[in-house]
Specification:
Elements lengths: L1 E6 L6 H15 L2 E5 H7 L7 E4 L2 H7 L2 E6 L1 H10 L7 E5 L14 H10 L3 E12 L4 E4 L2 E7 L5 E7 L2 E8 L1 E5 L7 H4 L11 E7 L9 E4 L4 E5 L5 E6 L2 E4 L5 E16 L5 H9 L10
Parallel strand pairs: 1-2, 1-4, 2-3, 4-5
Antiparallel strand pairs: 6-7, 6-17, 8-11, 8-15, 9-10, 9-14, 11-12, 12-13, 14-17, 15-16
Length: 290
């Protein structure tokens, strides 16, 4: 059996997670593929069960499943480079929050035992696909974002759903998120939390000028078109943090639910609402401690 490791060496906690994983792999005769540069940046000792590769993509292609060590940012990076490969991914949290990377280091050995024995299910998270006016395609696991660039002036962005105008937003920008992305930038901008697997779009304006302009949840069975009108401000278009400057206005993208999925490993005993309670500290009241 062969596991790939995709890690963010800038997270200092990754070193301990990787060392524990190597120790387990040696004891269980499991080989590990890892990008050589990533391994060198962790400054830990080598092992005979390690296979070094020239890239994270090569590691993923060679492995049966993938261990992603870091935070949700590392998960999004892995989703971007592995799109269409279809390997199961386990997120091991060595960052701060981690809604998708929700296996902790203290649970690592049991998690790895479950992987080896096949004791897990797959939580298939759908990508969103955006197509611009020239046919370029973009994929996002979390969200698409159209926003102003280096300006204090609000921008006008229109949204059409199933060929019907929803609204022309006057705001700092507009987020179109998936349920997976509902706990990311959309949540920080006042959007709702949506359970993964729900086939919807979240349309969340960023700092809208009109207080009655609220986030929307739309069924993903119809296309959603976003149009950035001609205006004085320069604008940016991004997908899961990959930022592009919009060179010509008006700019429009049509967003649909993609058939591609990112296959997150779901281990026994893991529950989405338990993750929410822990990460968002629901039900915790410091007054009860006194």
């Amino acid at each position: 059996m062969k596991f790939a490791i995709v890690a963010n060496p800038l997270k200092y906690e990754v070193r301990g997670v990787l060392e524990n994983t190597i120790k387990w792999a040696e004891e269980n005769e499991v080989s590990l593929c890892i990008h050589q540069l990533t391994f060198e940046e962790t400054h830990i000792e080598g092992s005979d069960i390690l296979e070094f590769t020239a890239s994270d993509e090569e590691s993923i292609k060679k492995a049966d499943l993938v261990l992603v060590m870091g935070g949700d940012g590392t998960i999004l990076y892995t989703a971007r480079i592995s799109k269409g490969i279809g390997k199961p991914m386990l997120g091991i949290n060595s960052g701060r929050l981690g809604f998708m990377a929700n296996t902790q280091n203290e649970d690592l050995v049991q998690a790895l035992n479950n992987l080896k024995s096949g004791n897990y299910t797959l939580d298939k998270r759908a990508y969103l696909k955006a197509t611009d006016g020239t046919g370029n395609e973009y994929y996002a696991l979390n969200e698409f974002l159209i926003t102003r660039k280096d300006s204090t002036t609000m921008v006008n962005i229109s949204a059409e759903y199933d060929n019907t105008l929803i609204n022309t937003y006057w705001a700092d920008g507009l987020i179109v998120a998936s349920p997976t992305g509902s706990t990311a930038y959309s949540l920080a901008s006042g959007g709702p939390i949506v359970v993964p697997g729900t086939e919807v779009f979240l349309v969340t304006p960023i700092n809208p000028h009109t207080l009655t302009t609220r986030p929307l949840i739309l069924n993903a069975n119809h296309p959603l078109k976003i149009i950035a009108e001609k205006q004085q401000s320069e604008m940016l278009f991004s997908y899961d943090g990959q930022v592009h400057e919009i060179s010509e206005l008006p700019f429009e993208v049509e967003i649909v639910l993609s058939s591609l999925t990112f296959d997150l490993i779901h281990l026994p005993g893991q529950h989405y609402f338990e993750t929410l309670r822990k990460k968002l500290m629901w039900g915790m009241d410091s007054r009860r401690e006194h």
